[in-house]
Amino acid sequence: MPVTRTQVGIVGAGPAGLMLGHLLHLRGIDSVIVENRSREHVIDRVRAGVLEQGTVDLMTAAGVAQRLHREGMRHGGIGIAFGGNRHRIALAELTAGRAITIYGQNEVVKDLIDARLETGRPVYFEVDRVGVHDLTTAQPKLRFHHGGDAHEVTCDVVAGCDGFHGICRTAIPATHLRVYERDYPFGWLGVLASAPPTSDELVYSLHDRGFALFSMRSPSITRLYLQCAPDENAEDWSDDRIWAELTARLSTSDGWAPAVGPILQKGVTGMRSFVAEPMRYGRLFLAGDAAHIVPPTGAKGLNLAMADVYRLAEAIAEHSTSVREDALDAYSDRGLRRTWRAQRFSWWMTSMLHRSESDNAFDRRRQLAELDYLVGSRAAMTSLAENYVGVPFD
Ligand code: FAD
Ligand code: DHB
């Protein structure tokens, strides 16, 4: 079995793992990335699309934002629709110029894989039997199989960037981890449609039939979401049914509606809030979805993952030059503060904008009162705006 050495063993080539590898590379720190899916699968996976200002700034500073600046769509506001009316929240005006950029997560991943391959540093796709070992020693190990061969990599640090269903978090003894979670009684049916966006900005809508979201990926591709049952089969949704529901839930009294077109891709995502504390066990550090999940309504998942790896790269760099443990020690507490802020915001956006069967008539009126207050108060809009565009990475 080949036994090699690296400074950081990274499990998972999603946005967190790839960005961490790149930030470490920029500081001259070596890493090995292992990913159990194929390169094509990772690039084709359609997921999030809203980048916070901090994520755009980080990608720009890391030199991986050329295509993002060319093809990404900067939005200075979002729409909120309820009661048949559309209201604008002027994100940039309310936050001294901060904004969001629409750029698909799969494009981010594609750019980061290209950047990784250019560095010549190792990234192994389609690995299996990944395991992390000796985590409480100064030489933790990553073991995996690739192309039928067993590998062992001795590391200084292991980064668990392997998402919610990965193996890193579950390698931590249950006695060392406290888990907080909440499931929601609904999911999202997400579709990608070949139809030009009819609004320049996103529209989040609460309708009697449930939540709907209008987003986009390019001047010819719309991305849309519908509240559905969490266990719904996407195949039960014909194109006609999807468009009837989207049109009913999104159309507003000013005559606005999404343009209809062929559906290119569809899938159902469950909704969950989840936090594992602390984000560290010995020399294993969790980042991104491996440590926390937010319901997608606040568009925070990908951005939290980026904030984690920014902080982790800084801490590892400090440790590698000074052998001081302070920054590594502070990683979890600093990340949890940001995580809980995003948890609160995502839970709030989700509760305000979804219909739940357990809600009664009082809850529905309260929800409408909340929306009415939001769009009528500069203070309430500012609170949404500063959380939505995201606080600067720290
Ligand atoms: P991931 O992107 O999950 O990456 C983890 C990587 O680790 C994956 O490539 C996985 O294949 C790999 N891996 C797993 N196990 C192993 C193993 N044992 N060995 C090696 N590799 C492993 N957020 C939003 O804000 N808006 C959305 O609309 C939205 N939609 C989503 C839809 C879906 C179906 C999912 C699952 C998530 C969605 N999210 C959304 C959340 C957002 O995509 C995530 O927060 C983001 O992907 C987190 O990045 P990550 O790198 O931490 O994890
Ligand atoms: C998108 C996803 C989100 O979760 C969200 O809140 C807004 C937009 C998107 O995929 O475009």
Topology overview:
Layout: E1 3-5, E2 8-11, H1 15-26, E3 31-34, H2 39-44, E4 50-51, H3 53-61, H4 66-71, E5 73-75, E6 78-82, E7 85-89, H5 91-94, E8 100-102, H6 105-119, E9 123-124, E10 128-133, E11 141-146, E12 149-154, E13 157-160, E14 178-194, E15 203-207, E16 210-218, E17 221-228, H7 239-250, E18 263-277, E19 280-281, E20 284-286, E21 292-293, H8 301-322, H9 326-353, H10 361-376, H11 378-389
Helix pairs in contact: 1-6, 1-8, 8-9, 10-11
The structure holds flavin-adenine dinucleotide and 3,4-dihydroxybenzoic acid.
List keywords for this structure.
binds flavin-adenine dinucleotide, binds 3,4-dihydroxybenzoic acid, 11 helices, alpha/beta, 6-stranded mixed β-sheet
Overall number of strands: 21
The parts where pLDDT drops under 50 for at least 5 residues are none
Shape: globular
The unique ligands bound to this protein are: flavin-adenine dinucleotide, 3,4-dihydroxybenzoic acid
Strand content: 25-35%
What gyration radius follows from the Cα positions, in whole Å? 21 Å
What would you call the structural class?
alpha/beta
Termini separation? 41 Å
**Average pLDDT for all residues:** 97
Give, in spatial order, the strands making up the sheet with the most strands: 7-6-15-16-17-14-18-21
Tell me about the largest β-sheet: 8 strands, mixed
Total helical elements: 11
Q: Which percent bin holds the helix content?
A: 25-40%
What does this structure look like?
- The relative contact order is 0.17.
- The mean pLDDT is about 95.
- This protein is α/β, with parallel strands linked by helices.
- A hairpin with a 2-residue loop joins strand 16 (about 210-220) and strand 17 (about 220-230).
- It is built from eleven helices and 21 strands.
- It has helices at about 15-25, 40-45, 55-60, 65-70, 90-95, 105-120, 240-250, 300-320, 325-355, 360-375, 380-390; strands at about 5, 10, 30-35, 50, 75, 80, 85-90, 100, 125, 130-135, 140-145, 150-155, 155-160, 180-195, 205, 210-220, 220-230, 265-275, 280, 285, 290-295.
- The strands form four sheets. An eight-stranded mixed beta sheet has the order 7-6-15-16-17-14-18-21.
- Helix 8 (about 300-320) packs antiparallel against helix 9 (about 325-355).
- It is about 35% helix and about 30% strand.
